[in-house]
Amino acid sequence: LAASTQPKRLVGKRVLLTAGPTFEAIDPVRGITNSSSGKMGFALARACAEAGAEVTLVAGPTAQATPQGVKRVDVISALQMRDAVFANLAKQDVFIAVAAVADYRPAKSVDHKIKKTNAKLTIELVPNPDILAEVAAKKHAPFCVGFAAESRDLARYAETKRKAKKLPLVVGNLVQDGLGGDDNSVTLFDARGAHPLPPGDKLDVARGIVEHIAGMLKKTKR
Ligand code: CTP
Ligand code: CA
């Protein structure tokens, strides 16, 4: 289906998303990151815009093109992503955290290249803030949607994350099904249970997720 024929289920809504990986610098030429193409997050931003929402996308380093009508804010690290999210959070109706945020960053980033020696090298890592959990814990939080990409026990881990972060909705997928590719197979977890979506192209899956979110927004009469 073409963009223009999509049902306008999110007219009048503001949606903020995160997408892509984050990159945590070790020195000026090295860093640690997560595997994430950004495809699912960008497809979801596009699907939200097609549905009539006003969309802001905070993106880590990816090769994806900005979807039409989407306001994009580029960031590198998790701390920058968190700052950009909070700077754009006012008046958002929905927050969708698709980004594969690095859970840890180097305790210190050094100004010059670390030089090679024959000795062991240890890099100390400190935990990054959980952007989604921080947003969801706010008073007057938007409707918060999390992603759970797991390598096993999807239902158990997705439900655990949904409850731990106090989210109305978690989109779960097995990394073997989605990572890097054009297709995905996801299950939506909400208070009513598990709802598998038909597997397909990431844009079709994104449109299915938007349908579900729009339905939940209607019920909660926000
Ligand atoms: N998330 C986030 N900020 C972080 C880590 C995760 O906003 N620092 C968001 C992700 O964008 C995703 C959800 O939280 O929507 C779950 O991320 P995930 O990495 O699957 O879960 P974690 O809580 O980090 O647990 P773990 O990596 O141990 O499975
Ligand atoms: Ca994580």
In short:
This protein has 6 helices and 14 strands. The protein has 222 residues and is α/β, with parallel strands linked by helices. The protein is globular and about 60 Å long.
Structural description of this entry:
One of its GO terms (cellular component) is phosphopantothenoylcysteine decarboxylase complex. Keywords: Decarboxylase, Flavoprotein, FMN, Ligase, Lyase, Magnesium, Metal-binding, Multifunctional enzyme. Residues 15-222 are annotated as: Phosphopantothenate--cysteine ligase. GO terms for molecular function: FMN binding; metal ion binding; phosphopantothenate--cysteine ligase activity; phosphopantothenoylcysteine decarboxylase activity. Its cofactor is FMN; Mg(2+). It is a single chain. With 222 residues, this protein is α/β, with parallel strands linked by helices. The protein is 28% helix and 28% strand. The chain contains 6 helices and 14 strands. An 8-stranded mixed β-sheet has the order 5-4-1-6-9-10-12-13, with helices on both faces. It has a two-stranded antiparallel sheet with strand order 2-3. Helix 1 crosses helix 6. The longest helix has 19 residues, at 202-220. The two termini are 29 Å apart. Cytidine-5'-triphosphate (CTP) binds at residues 18, 78, 97, 99, 101, 103, 128, 130-132, 146-149, 161.
